[in-house]
Amino acid sequence: MPFPDDPPDFVKAIRALADFRYISQAPVLDDNDIAKISDALKEFHDNKAIIISSGARRGAESKQPLEHWQIPKLELMQSVAPSVSQAGSPLQWSADTTEHAHVIVIKDPVESTNNASHDPQICRYLDRAEKCRLFEIAVSIAGAKQQAPDVQPTSDDDTGADQDDFMEPMESHPAAILNDLWSSGRSVTDFFKKAEHLEETGNLSAPWPPRTFITTSGSTAIHLNYDPSHCRMPIDEVSTMFHLPDLRGALADYFSREGMYGRHVHTLDHPRRATADSRLHFDDLQVWFKVRIQQKSFHDVAVICPTHTINASPPGGDWTFGHYDAAIFNVEESKYWPQNGLDGHIVTEVRLIMRPVPPKGTHPAWSSRFLVYVQRLDLELQSRRGLMVDPITGMHILKRATRSPNALMGDILPLDQLRAFTHIIPRFGEVANPRLNCFNSSHFAKSFYLNKYFDKEFYYTLSATM
Length: 466
Prior knowledge:
Blueprint: H1 8-24, H2 31-47, H3 49-53, H4 72-76, H5 80-87, H6 96-110, H7 118-146, H8 174-182, H9 191-201, E1 212-214, E2 220-223, E3 230-234, H10 235-241, H11 247-258, E4 284-288, E5 290-295, E6 308-313, E7 323-324, E8 326-330, E9 345-357, E10 371-379, E11 396-400, E12 402-404, E13 407-408, E14 410-414, E15 418-422, E16 424-426, H12 441-444, E17 447-450, H13 456-464
Antiparallel strand pairs: 1-2, 2-5, 3-4, 4-9, 5-6, 6-7, 8-9, 8-15, 9-10, 10-11, 10-14, 11-17, 12-13, 16-17
Helix pairs in contact: 1-2, 2-5, 6-7, 7-8
């Protein structure tokens, strides 16, 4: 998409095309969706003139400005909405599979021919390519049997471990090699199935609390690495490492509100009452630098979506201010993701993933819950009529919430209230900060766009509730 600072009509036209494509590609469409398809196409035509006047419409080969819209596919788009009513979702007629096969077995091999007698040369190319691939697989299997991995047990004192107890086989592993030989493609890791298996079997070798679990909404599975990035670290050291001076106070307020056995939904709108030297029932934290999250499809809960990784790592390397991702958390028990969209949910930046370590020899109930320190991002009203979406970009605008002019709104939430990964785009204003780069742009930005276009499932969730 163009930059949001481009002329409004230009942004509207391109955004309308994006909306048209996203909605048209949904596996399930109703009358409301058909109306949205028609509205998106109309909005494009209402605003497309500026694309011509600005010289942005150019020929593919000549690179010269064009003064017309004689594009067959653009004309074809006008028949999408009527055809959906008669034949269903256009997605079922996709030619992606056959087009991809045509590239693999025809277009790529023909580049190695002398442009004469194509058929026998293409067949010879495919035959030799298959023999080379089978030989490589046989050599890999033979080598894998001779190089069995030396697995060392891990201990709770290993502070640098960042291993995963549910990993896909390595490429050199025989299982992965055979999967590559006989499977049509790599399958999606299913954390829902793993969580259900752990709950049904009660695996005694698995850590407690379970590193893989399903949230109460049933639509989100969460997975943490078997070993924390830091197995035991004093609270004050964690506070210093992550630049969170109010961490101890936030933990004290959390347990004060929730009680030592509380399991209800936690909110993020309380004043900070505890001080930085508050006493807690524990001294150390386990810390993870990332968490993986998986959701079910918006249109079909039987379909498991690919996983997303939410990072929450301290400053280091190129990430001089840390590497933190945005996420959606539930804060209202009667609201569900994705059915209710952002209603009853908040957008946050995840700054720390942790678990309090209880005193040795004790197993209090509060130690079985993973926690996160997050900083809240509030939605900005776009008009007096209560419009929450920017009419130009079609995206929500976020701003960092603050407790005071110099203190961001940060607090503790249970990890099991996490619902979705999300992507935010910094808003730079008329003049961008010259210090900005891809590693620090979110640190310096005070306002963001909530990018609903980064993932179709996220787009469908927000669009259905807007």
